[in-house]
Amino acid sequence: MKPLIIGMLIIAASLLLLVWVGLKIQPLPFPAYAAPAADLTTTPLPKGLPAPVERFYLQVYGENIPVIESAVITGRGKLRVKGITFPARFQFTHRTGKDYRHYIETTIWGQPVMKVNEHFLDGVCKLELPFGVSEGFKVDQGANLALWAEAIWMPSVWITDPQARWEPRDANSAVLVVPFGETEERITVQFDPQTGLVTHLESMRFKETTSSEKILWMNDVLTWESLNGYMLPVDTSVTWLDEGSPWANFTVEQIVYNSDVNDSIRLNGLSK
C-alpha cells in the first residue's frame, strides 16, 4: 500500500509542478491589429480646466488635442481567477464614450484555457465567461465605469467628448464626471506632482451581481511610455479594495486609433 501512496503523491506533485511552471509562461502576443486607421484631427486644448488636468494634457498632447473616435488596445498581462493568477493576452475595442468589447484569453503553457467575451453596447453589458454569463444593472454600472476608465489609453476623450467634464479637487487630483443612463458617475483621478501624469483612478462600483453595496475600484498606471507619438500608459493594474492587491495587470503592446470598429465591436473573439 505504501508504494501506491508514494506513487500517487509523486504524480500529484509532478502535476502541480507542471501547472506551476505553465502559469509562469507568457503566451505569444496576439497578431498585430492590421485594420487601416484614419488620420487624427485635432482641436485646441480647452480653457478653464482644473490646474492638474490642464498640466496633464499639456504633458501628453501639448496645445492640440487629438480627436479619437475608436481605439483597439492589444497586449498581455495577468488575471487572477478564483485565487489563481493566470498569464493572459487581451484585445479591447472601444467606440470611445459609447461602447466596448473585451476579448481575453488566460493561458497555461502559453495555451488558452479560458476565453472571455464582454460586450458593452448601447449601455448594456453582457459578460460571457467559461462558467456563466453575467448581465443586469450592476454589471452595466461597472461596465460604464470601465468604458471611461479605459480611456486612460486615449485620454483626449475625457475633454473632447461633451458627455464628460472635469471638476476641481486639489493641486494633484480632480474629479472626472461621466454619464450613466440618466445619472452621473464620478471618477477621482490623481496626478503625479512631479511629472503631471495620471497615476491613479478610483470610483465606486458593484463588484458582483449579488453585491448590495458598491466598493472602491482602483486603476493604477505603473509606467508611461511613448506610443503613437504620445506619452501613454503601458503598464496598468486593477484592484478591488477588499482584495488588497491587483487582480489584473495589463501591458499594452499596440494601440490603433480611428479604425472602423462598427462591425468588429459586436463580434466574439479576436479582431484582425
> So what's the CATH class?
Mainly Beta
* CATH fold-level label: outer membrane lipoprotein receptor (LolB), chain A
Q: Report the end-to-end length measured between terminal Cα atoms.
A: 56 Å
Question: What value does the average pLDDT take?
Answer: 93
Total number of strands? 15
Task: Tell me the fraction of residues in β-strands, as a range.
Answer: over 45%
In the predicted model, the low-confidence regions spanning at least 5 consecutive residues are none
What is the helix/strand order?
HEHEEEEEEEHHEEEEEEE
Helix content: 10-25%
Rough shape?
globular
Helix count?
4
Counting helices, strands and paired strands, the structural category is alpha+beta
Strand order of the largest sheet: 8-7-6-5-4-3-15-14-13-12-11-10-9
**What is the CA-based Rg, rounded?**
20 Å
Q: Main β-sheet: number of strands, strand sense, barrel status?
A: 13 strands, antiparallel
The CATH architecture can be given as: Clam
Count the domains. 1
